[in-house]
Amino acid sequence: MLRLRRLALVLFLGAAALAACDRYGDDIDAVKVADSVVPGKSNEVLTLDIAGARGTVEWHGEEAPQYQSPEIVAVIATIKRIGATGIRHQIDLDFVHNRQTKKVAFDGALLDGKKQDLVSGAMSLFLMQLE
Description:
Layout: H1 2-21, H2 25-33, H3 43-51, E1 55-63, E2 72-82, E3 88-98, E4 103-111, E5 114-116, H4 118-130
């Protein structure tokens, strides 16, 4: 009987953990299909292009407290890439998804931990493609 209770508790906690992870799944999917940075190119295709053959892309969602609304969610695409010279880079592309309006917007980028504006970020990504 005790074993059965323990098993039920473990299964319940596992299901609760999976439900928490999936909390932002719809937000991530909405950001992936939107074309927030390059018109006509989905954000998912853009991240895969940046990652190239030597990189990986991980997506995750989280609360966006700076917007003070539970309806606005931050979604981050983390791209880990190894250049041809062996240098490792991490690019974080930040997006916001408004659950009420269903709009997605590009919110900025970090390149190796440094905030990038639109022009310098684009130039840095271009130069990274050349290395």
